[in-house]
Every structure is written in structure tokens, then in C-alpha cells.
């Protein structure tokens, strides 16, 4: 045998390659096994290993020579290929053990180019090393087996003179005998090759082409691939033309500009405020104009036409999906409150909470997670249940106050309770709590764009929004526009808060470098930004030697408390109005707590280091951030501005754990737990109102502007601008009855699944259905009914929309099946339309 005469390293290299490649493929097939009928999996099984067989044969071929060019090439290529495959398979195995999901090599290469992203990847070093050790041991065990199998098979197949099988001195009869032994091998190989080739020709492309990929080829393909291939071409025309025909058009009315999709007008009148220089974000109002239709030359009448034909921009008049509720009256409790007393809004604070799931804001008795905690214990007597629930009652007390929702646990006192924030609002007051809200993306910075700018994120991987056109003015830029119209007296700043200038600041305790967030925030219009890079400098105003980094991104929120206090003090001192945006971070993986903060044990001891360890850590971080929100609100009380500050609390996305779905985390995971988020508009002088709407955080900016106008918190000029701009945004105002439908059209919702360019979720405010729409051929269509399956335990799946529609019809009826067909069309149209609005180049 060749293996006996060669150094051990050569067959060991072959074994590493074989074991790593096959382990990767077996895991890959296992993750897709449930999506394909078993009979088809069995029939097409040989076609899944074509690339692997070719790779093994080439590797064996290069390992046979000890001298010459083939030996030199083999010594370079084979070790490099084996090492790469070994590392990739170790990464794949460790990623699966941690998340239950499959590695996307294109995403890995993107994250790996970012310094902070590499820190994130290194957080999985332990499972990677564990997987690597397992692969090395298996390779060592199977070294001689692999060498023997390939020596016998490939020597017989190609007629090579194996060092162990043939000698130059062998007799002709002996050589004939060996040749006869090789004939069956060649025959069966030929039969297998022809059979596999036939199967390869007749099998469907989707999903089997994706299942046939082998590392390292899939990795190398990701390196040279610029973007994922779209499964079907996106059509430019709106797919439901009967809903936007001329008979459905609406005439202009006051600030409402009308609605006539795909009409021939192509032009709109410019508002008065667009006559002069405008801030960044208002480019579509400040482009060169040309009067048509006999308009006057002074620009006050007539129709304005955009002369930059190649520049796409958003136009609410021509948006087939836009549904506005600004024609509806205010919610009655709000209308009465505004009539009875003044509700001043001098300052606005927007708190974007990392991984904030709605079901832990607040945490409730009887919820899915509560049941998971109880079920982790093998036995619970009444006393233990009482003690456990008493402990859980202290998990989210601030969230209970903010939302007005009770956790449903018996209240118990603790020694630390005296330090918690006490609400100063009168009974029945405190603001709006919105139930049913979904985030627009499970990637934080895409959500940041949606929350601050009132636009849909870009459905491509990662943050191309930074180099694309943000197609609406962000709230910071709107406030900057207000500043430009302020009239200042020679005596100095006005004491009237309506005449004060706005200033904007962004504050977080973690890095601003990851995914170029610092560049994004410049793009969105923040005047000042504070990140961990700023507060960690020895020259920083509030620097101290014992600053503690709690994770690979930075510090706990408490480190930015003095900077937030400074921002408020500066605004008060300068007689300015403050827009403060704060992003929490402790609830991000690995959910570590600062030293001195006690970690509670919510799950059973027996399971804490197993299935429930991550969720337990997450709940502890939720408790910490809940207390931090109280400290923030206490700061507003301390500075005497609580009763004139609107505070918006919103989650950037949720966070799936093993308790929720087989796949954990947000990456490539469309589970509903990644998208349900809290949304609260807090003001002590607003009535406490519970609102249920299948909305998204797209409504935040229209609601803020509507509140500023309705509370008379803007001067006359700014109010006119706000009323005009409210009619430009796609989202509806949440202080008015939400429109789930309008003249037969549905209020469609879209949710981008991290990293952004592979899957989107399509939903509607009119129905409880949800469709996961794949944008590549590597993912399935998935349907859920949130009414009957709110935790998405029983999902319907299909590799084609036709297959999924058939399943949905059989389970939920024809109307549900029709909705899926329409949702698929509208979702594909939306993807293309959003890229057009961003002027995004493929």
C-alpha cells in the first residue's frame, strides 16, 4: 500500500481534507433535511457529493509524487487547501453549535474586514477550538482508512502503478491478474458516474444546487461574489394594478398632496419653505427647478418640475403603498387632554434599546418565557413558585411603569427598591404604549435609520445606506431646518421656547466604529456624537482609571450618564431645545454585567449551564437596562425638564434564543422573536393610552412631528413645515386611529432579516399573516399565522411560492393562500423600489 511507504503527513493531509469536507457537507444536508421530502433526498443524494469527489481525487493525485513539478505543486496546494477547509469546517460547526444556523461566507468576509467585527467573531473562539480538536482527532483516526480507500479505488480507476501493487519485475500474468481486478472498479465507477450525471441533469436547480456546494469552493465563491443573485428579476411595475387605477386616486386637500400612482403629472408644487438654501437631507426640494404650464416666474405659483431626471427620489403622491391617516381625528383621550391643559414638548429623547424584545418589556406572568422558566425545574412546590415569581417581579419594574402593563406577579419589596426611579406622573397619565409593533430590520443600524429618518432600510447586506441616498430628511435635519427659519432679536436668545434653536446629540457607551456607525451618524445629521472611543481617552472630561469594558464593544450605559447630564445642562444654559438619541448596549451578546451587579438565577441550577444559560444571562442584562432607563428618567427629573420632554423608547430588534426557535440570534433568522419590539411615547402630561396596531417603527417620525404640532410646541412657521413634512413620510401617525386598509389596499409592512440582502419578511396591518420572502435561491419561503401561532412554532415552508400557496390554502383557506401570492409579488416589487429610492447601484 502507498500509505505504508509515504510519510504519515501525506495521508494525514488527505484525511484532514476528507473528514473536514464530509463533516461540513453532512451538517449542510442535515440543516436542509426537513425541507425536502425524504424520497427526493435519497434519489438525489449522490449528486450532492460531486464537488467533494473531484476535490479528493485531485488531492490524491498530487500526493502520489515525491519529486518533480507535481510534487512541488502538491506541497503548495494540498496543505493550503486542507488547512483552509479544516478552518472553515471548524467555523461552520462552532457556528451551528452556538446558533443552530448556517454560516454565510459572504457575511463572514464582510465582518472580518472590520476591526470591531473581528472582536465579535473572536467571541466564538472556544467552540471553534473545540470543533477543531474533534476534527483533528477524527482525521488521525481515519488516516489509514482514507489512504487505503483512495489508493485502491483511484489506482484501479486511472491505471496508476501503485508502489505497493505493481513492480517492474512483475510477470505479465501477474499484471493481467491485477488488470482483471481493476475492471469491476472501473465499471462500477462508470455506472455511478453516468447515473449521477443523469440525476444532475434532471434534478431541479432549487434547492439542490445550493445543497451541492462544497467548502472550500463555496467560500472562494463568496470572496469573488459582489452580491447574492436574486432568485427572480424584480419587476418595475406595481404588481396589483387594479388597486391603484385612476378610480382610486385622491385629490389634494390642504397639506395632503393627493395620491395618483403612475400618473402622468410627474410634478408637484414646492412648499414655501423650500424657496431658499436647505440643510442636508432636503436635496430633492433644493434641486434646480423649471416652471411649466405658464407658471409665474416668481416661484410662488405654478408647477415645479425636477430637471435632474436620473436622480430618483421619494414622492408620496406616486407611492402605490402609501396610506395616510392624517385625515383622521386625534384619539379622543389625546384631543381631550390637549383641550384641557397645555402639554409642552421642549426636548425630545429617543432611546433605542438593543435587543429589546416586546415580551420582556415588561416581563409577564404566563408568557412563553415565563413558562420556559417554570419548565426548567423538575419539580416546583408552591413555596418555590412564590419565591421564583417574587424574584421575577423585580425584573422589569420600570418597563411596567412606562407601558402601563402589569407583569402580573405578586409585588414584594427589596432593600434596593428605594433607589429605583419613582414616576411623578399623575394616575392615568404617562403617554402612549403601542402593542403590535415590528422593527424594520434585525440589524441595529438599519433600524437606526428607520427610527430616525422614517424610511425603510435598504434590502442589501450590511450598511450600503452609508454610501447611498437617504431618501427622506431625518428628524435631526428637520430640526435643523426649523433652526434656519428662526428669527433672533438683537437682545439675544429668545426666552420663548418656541423660538429656541434645536441641537442634536447621539450618545452610546460602546464603539462607534463597528460597521462605520460613526460615518452613518454623520450622514443622518447628528451635530455631536459620543462613543466609547471618546469617553475612553485619558483626556475625556469624565474619564476615570477604573472604567470597565463589559464586552468586546465597550462599556455599560452608566459610563455615559455624566455626558448626558452635560448635554442637558448645556441645552438649558444655552437656552436650546435638545434632541438626544441614546443607544443602549448591555443587552447585546455576551450579555455581561458590570462588576458589582448581581446576577440572578431565573432558570433551574440543572439547566443553567446548558440550554438556558444564554437566556438567563440575557434576562439579567434586561434587568440592568431596565434600571438604567429609570436612572435616565431620574436625570430628567433632577434637571427639572421631565414635564417638557417627550421620551421615545423603541427596540432596535428582538433576540431569538433556543427557548424560541431552533435557530438562535438575529443573523439569517426570520423568527418573530427577532422583530417584536416595544414602542412607548413617554410624557408625564399625556394620558396613558394602550394602542394596538400592526405597525412598524416607520411611524416614529410622523408621530413625533404630529405631537409637536398638536401640543403647540412649534411656532407658526415650524408648524407649517411639520404639517407639510408629515405628509411626505410613508408611516402613519400613532396619535390617530391607524388605517389597516384604505380603499381595498393593505398597509404593508416589511422587515429586513440580517444581514439584509437574503431574506425579507412581508406582513400587513390588515391580517395576522407573515411571509418570509427569500431573495436568493438558498432559502425557503416560510408562512406563519400569528393569530393561531403567535410564537411561530408550527411554520409552513416551501421552496417555491406555488408550493407554499398550496400548503397555506389547504390549512388556512383560499383567502390566506391568495394573500401569500400577493405578498410575494408586493415584496419583490418593494425590494426593487427601495433600491431605486436609495439610488443604490447593484
Automatic annotation (TrEMBL):
Cross-referenced Pfam families: Sulfatase (PF00884)
PANTHER family: SULFATASE, SULFATASE N-TERMINAL DOMAIN-CONTAINING PROTEIN
UniProtKB keywords: Membrane, Transmembrane, Transmembrane helix
Database matches in SUPFAM superfamilies: Alkaline phosphatase-like
Descriptive protein name: Sulfatase N-terminal domain-containing protein
Protein source organism: Penicillium daleae
Tagged with keyword Transmembrane: yes
Transmembrane feature ranges: 12-30, 42-63, 75-98, 128-150, 185-202
Residues in Sulfatase N-terminal domain copies: 541-708
InterPro entries: Alkaline_phosphatase_core_sf (IPR017850), GAG_Ulvan_Degrading_Sulfatases (IPR052701), Sulfatase_N (IPR000917)
